[in-house]
């Protein structure tokens, strides 16, 4: 919303007074004669109507309407003469509020406009009789002028006592079609307060012209143009014709929705003027852009030169290196100012002056290169070959020959079987490898063969398991180079040795020690029990007390010794 404050003026011209009341409202009424305004801009300064003083029934401008709760027509908004506020003429639109007769709410409704309100802006001058915080003028619109509930506010102006000019844009405000603009005067103070409106202007919002209209490319019959939009418009009108034409005469015009456009069906060598207009709405176009003037392309064909030769060819100040058809354009060379296009049809056969390098391995000799054979005794060297190519053109080749050696050597490696798998020069010998001669195929840094004949010796590694069973009485016991002393127990013993070739020799000995027994037992018997059997022995009648050693073997063949202490008791006869 724009406004310009006007100071030091003599007063208002004709205006509307809006009247409001804080008392209970009556039913709404629409007064006046509704009609539509088809042509913009619309201006109203109220000077063409008969004005009446405040408090006297008056008239509204043509096509305006009033909605009010006032009970007396003389207090409705109307064209009024107010000498205290008159300026720029004698008449203005006046409205008042806060008295029951004035009406609690007063609306001054503008005419209908054929244009979409979202395309417009409204300008007006206003001032109020006094300045209160609870007084304001509201600009809005009605969907139905017979129903206050359909009023929608757009902008609010607080009361002020200086003349202020406002210019309010309605651009893209989302106003529905078929609605009408209206002023609503609001005053909740306890005293009557007048509002004055004058110099109303309704017109299309300014549609800004495009800028940077430029020619991107031009041919004989087409031209490509582009430009920068003026604002937020999405449609444009393009107009063009032969240079010097008058708008609307002998021109071509069309609408587009992109800022890049192609002009077609142009005449060769003609000068054209182009204009672009922004189309903000159906009836709202910008002024014409600055003119863009260009000339469509034209040419005439000149001579054609046909050449076949060796090497390069000079033509029209340029050097050509390859066979082809070439064109040279001389601008404005014809009497009519068109370009002349000359043609060169040239076949160029190469002159070779080539540098090449041949790298081979000595085991590839003898070696053929093109029509030359390098023998087995060839060595590094530089050669120059002179030949004739197509169209008898020179062909010179500078050849640098490098002969890289191949290698053969023998090697011997000794390993133990437990070293497998074994890696030699990136070759892996698996676990099952045996002693033998193996060729190792490699490549040197220059990519030539490198062969190693490897004599590989694989000596055996041993892993032996043995089981020995002894009796306890055999301790200490000697096994190979190891003595098992008394106190040794059954177990698995691992012995690590090396063979004569230095390879692992591992023996796992399972030693089983069976127990031997030596026990003492005591036997006491009466002589009358003789003969007497003890285990598998029979003691005869003549057995006497004593110690006996009984030697046997266990089930595993180990000693079992029993020291038996025998006591024979004689019978005693008492008299």
Chart the SSEs and their pairings.
Blueprint: E1 2-6, E2 15-16, E3 29-32, E4 36-37, E5 42-44, E6 65-68, E7 78-81, E8 91-97, E9 106-109, E10 112-113, E11 120-128, E12 135-142, E13 151-158, E14 163-169, E15 180-187, E16 193-204, E17 211-218, E18 223-228, E19 236-242, E20 251-256, E21 260-263, E22 271-281, E23 284-285, E24 292-295, E25 299-310, E26 313-315, E27 318-320, E28 324-330, E29 339-349, E30 352-361, E31 367-369, E32 372-374, E33 381-388, E34 394-404, E35 407-416, E36 422-424, E37 427-429, E38 436-443, E39 449-459, E40 462-471, E41 477-479, E42 482-484, E43 491-498, E44 504-514, E45 517-526, E46 532-534, E47 537-539, E48 546-553, E49 559-569
Parallel strand pairs: 4-10, 25-29, 30-34, 35-39, 40-44, 45-49
Antiparallel strand pairs: 1-14, 2-7, 3-6, 5-16, 6-9, 7-8, 8-16, 9-15, 11-14, 11-16, 12-13, 12-15, 17-18, 18-21, 19-20, 19-22, 22-23, 22-24, 26-27, 28-29, 31-32, 33-34, 36-37, 38-39, 41-42, 43-44, 46-47, 48-49
């Amino acid at each position: 919303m724009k406004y310009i404050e006007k100071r030091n003026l003599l007063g208002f011209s004709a205006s509307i007074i809006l009247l409001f009341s804080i008392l209970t409202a009556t039913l709404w009424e629409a007064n006046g004669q509704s009609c539509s305004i088809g042509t913009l801009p619309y201006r109203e300064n109220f000077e063409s109507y008969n004005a009446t003083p405040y408090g006297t029934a008056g008239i509204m401008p043509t096509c305006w309407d009033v909605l009010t709760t006032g009970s007396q027509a003389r207090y409705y908004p109307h064209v009024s003469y107010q000498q205290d506020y008159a300026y720029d003429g004698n008449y203005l639109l006046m409205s008042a509020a806060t008295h029951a007769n004035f009406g609690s709410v007063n609306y001054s409704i503008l005419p209908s406009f054929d244009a979409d309100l979202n395309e417009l802006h409204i300008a007006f001058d206003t001032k109020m009789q006094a300045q209160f915080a609870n007084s304001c003028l509201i600009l809005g619109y009605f969907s139905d002028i017979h129903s206050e509930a359909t009023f929608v506010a757009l902008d609010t102006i607080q009361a002020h006592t200086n003349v202020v000019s406002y210019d309010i844009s309605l651009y893209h405000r989302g106003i529905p079609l078929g609605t009408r603009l209206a002023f609503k005067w609001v005053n909740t103070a306890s005293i009557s307060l007048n509002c004055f409106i004058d110099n109303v202007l309704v017109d299309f919002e300014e549609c800004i012209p495009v800028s940077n209209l430029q020619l991107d490319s031009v041919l004989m019959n087409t031209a490509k143009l582009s430009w920068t939009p003026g604002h937020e418009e999405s449609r444009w009108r393009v107009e063009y014709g032969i240079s010097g034409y008058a708008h609307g005469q002998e021109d071509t015009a069309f609408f587009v929705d992109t800022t890049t456009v192609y002009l077609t069906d142009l005449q060769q060598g003609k000068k054209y003027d182009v204009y672009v207009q922004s189309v903000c709405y159906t009836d709202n176009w910008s002024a014409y852009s600055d003119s863009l003037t260009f000339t469509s392309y034209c040419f005439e064909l000149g001579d054609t030169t046909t050449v076949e030769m060796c090497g390069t060819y000079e033509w029209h100040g340029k050097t050509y290196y390859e066979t082809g058809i070439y064109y040279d354009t001389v601008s404005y060379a014809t009497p009519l100012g068109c370009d002349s296009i000359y043609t060169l049809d040239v076949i160029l056969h190469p002159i070779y002056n080539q540098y090449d390098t041949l790298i081979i391995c000595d085991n590839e000799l003898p070696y053929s290169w093109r029509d030359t054979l390098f023998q087995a005794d060839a060595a590094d060297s530089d050669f120059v070959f002179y030949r004739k190519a197509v169209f008898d053109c020179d062909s010179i080749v500078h050849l640098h020959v490098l002969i890289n050696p191949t290698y053969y050597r023998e090697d011997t490696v000794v390993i133990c079987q437990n070293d497998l798998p074994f890696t030699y020069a990136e070759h892996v010998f698996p676990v099952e490898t045996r002693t033998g001669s193996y060729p190792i195929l490699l490549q040197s840094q220059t990519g030539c063969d490198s062969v190693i004949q490897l004599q590989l010796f694989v000596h055996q590694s041993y892993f032996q398991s043995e089981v020995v069973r002894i009796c306890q009485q055999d301790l200490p016991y000697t096994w190979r180079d190891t003595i098992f002393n008394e106190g040794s127990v059954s177990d698995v013993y691992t012995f690590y040795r090396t063979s004569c070739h230095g390879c692992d020799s591992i023996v796992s000995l399972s030693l089983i020690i069976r127990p031997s027994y030596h026990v003492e037992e005591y036997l006491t018997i009466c002589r009358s029990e003789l003969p007497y059997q003890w285990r598998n022995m029979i003691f005869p009648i003549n057995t006497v007390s004593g110690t006996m050693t009984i030697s046997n073997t266990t089930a595993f063949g180990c000693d079992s010794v029993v020291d038996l202490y025998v006591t024979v008791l004689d019978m005693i006869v008492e008299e």
